[in-house]
Design a protein that fits this description.
Order of helices and strands: HEEHEEEHHHHHHHH
Bound molecules: glutathione
Strand order of the largest sheet: 1-5-4-2-3
Shape: globular
Radius of gyration: 19 Å
CATH superfamily of one domain: Glutaredoxin
Strand content: 5-15%
């Protein structure tokens, strides 16, 4: 053992994005690729969209958003976490999109190969994800509406459902407020502004041109998570984003 080995074993490594070295085959459910997610999580919808588009059958583990009991085994504590059939763990939605594409039909450029795709994939996390959160959790009423789904999740106990809905509603209202502070415009106007900006990246039918690339799945997934929730009318009434959204809905089947 040299000094480097000693230092390495003594440092608590931060959890990292991307493919993990350690396999976790015990986390695979029913022998299928498995996604650990929250029902309404925008980042999880990105992955659902790509899996849907490629026709991949997968298992879903619903993680309770307050205690994250079902994800206690992982150092990476945010959803989505993807575990492939062989136990390969991949963290962070954009990395998961690349992993699934690369290990499947390999249809879009990898990170670093297409700067526009990279920028729009970053936009989905840094801007669009935060913009929709500011709208969905604009008031206590809209926050509770968004969290009502937890009362219908089969694998949660009665207590877990109640705490997640009511404590979750209060927490997410606070998150919504802090996201709103990131932008100059009020939440609804900001989302409209971001959609206008985003439509500049759609080249023809998709960000990817004739076929969807990583930027399409990333941004569609974020907006798809809003369907049925407060503020989705902003997406529905957008002249160029809405037709693209409908094309992505057909392509992904979700
Ligand atoms: N950069 C991550 C962000 C994921 C994320 O923030 N997920 C939220 C749910 S929507 C979460 O798990 N939050 C709980 C936490 O971070 O502990 C990704 O793209 O996957």
């Amino acid at each position: 053992m040299d000094d480097n080995d000693i230092q390495h074993s003594e440092i608590d490594l931060e959890p990292t994005s991307g493919v993990q070295e350690k396999l976790v085959p015990e986390r695979v459910v029913d022998g299928l690729p498995t996604m650990y997610c929250f029902e309404t999580c925008p980042f999880c919808f990105k992955v659902k969209a790509l899996l849907g588009s490629r026709g991949v059958e997968y298992s879903k583990v619903e993680v309770d958003p307050t205690f994250k009991t079902q994800l206690k085994w992982s150092d990476w504590t945010a959803v989505p976490v993807f575990v492939d059939r062989d136990g390969t763990q991949v963290n962070d939605s954009n990395y998961i999109l690349h992993y699934i594409d690369e290990n499947g039909t390999n249809e879009f450029p990898r990170m670093g190969e297409d700067s526009e795709q990279d920028e729009w994939m970053d936009f989905s996390n840094l801007i669009l994800g935060k913009s929709i959160v500011a709208v969905i959790y604009k008031s206590y009423r809209t926050s509770l509406q968004a969290l009502d789904y937890v009362t219908r999740v089969d694998n949660f106990s009665f207590g877990t459902r109640l705490v997640n809905k009511w404590a979750g509603g209060v927490i997410m209202r606070m998150v919504g407020k802090s996201r709103a502070k990131m932008f100059d415009l009020p939440p609804r106007e900001n989302l409209k502004f971001q959609l206008d900006h985003m439509s500049g990246g759609i080249k023809g039918d998709f960000f990817g041109g004739d076929t969807p690339n990583g930027a399409d799945f990333a941004n569609f997934g974020i907006l798809r998570s809003m369907e049925g929730l407060y503020g989705f009318d902003i997406v529905e009434s957008h002249a160029s984003v809405w037709p693209w959204y409908l094309r992505m809905k057909v392509s992904s089947g979700i």
